Amino acid sequence: MNYTIAVLGDSTVGKTTFLDRHETGAFTRQHVPTTHTSVRNLTFSTSGGVVTLRMVEYPELTPVANLLHTVQADAVLLMFDLTNRISFKNALLYARAIGNTVPFVLAGKQV
Ligand SMILES: Nc1nc2c(ncn2[C@@H]2O[C@H](COP(=O)(O)OP(=O)(O)OP(=O)(O)O)[C@@H](O)[C@H]2O)c(=O)[nH]1
Ligand SMILES: [Mg+2]
Question: For 71-83, what is each residue's pLDDT tens digit?
């Protein structure tokens, strides 16, 4: 089974770091802004078989309402920084723009 997951959220909330951690186990200390969509496959063995998630990190969508149509995904991983209130408010804008078009999960990072 293959699914495409869009990873969205403000810059610096920790999208790349999260994906690096899953891919290699390493914690990425440095912030190198993601300027273009960045794709990597994460494979999981589950009781239902092997699942490959095509994780697509997007640069911050500003303004989200105008740019969301550029996102093609089966589901969204929407991230915010628990120490940054603005990133949470912006996550709500993302959530509103996504509406019920695809399933999404909201993940608080940076703890
Ligand atoms: N303490 C802590 N720092 C984190 C965590 N996740 C990310 N960081 C740090 O936050 C900074 C930004 O992380 P990135 O993963 O590059 O952020 P991003 O969301 O990919 O940013 P853009 O690509 O610019 O959109 C880096 O310096 C990371 O080391 C976390 O869970 N805890
Ligand atoms: Mg990034």
Answer: 999 999 999 999 9
* Dist. CA 51 → ligand 1 center (Å): 26
83 with 55: CB under 8 angstroms?
no
What domain count does the chain have?
1
The alpha carbon of 47 and the centre of ligand 1 are apart by a number of angstroms equal to 31
SS3 content of the chain, % helix, strand, coil (to 5): 30, 35, 40
CA of 105 to the centre of ligand 2 (A): 18
| Whether pLDDT at 66 is above 90 | no
Find out whether the beta carbon of 37 lies less than 6 Å from any atom of ligand 1: no
Q: Residue 75 is part of a domain; what is its CATH number?
A: 3.40.50.300
Q: In which domain, by residue range, is 73 found?
A: 2-109
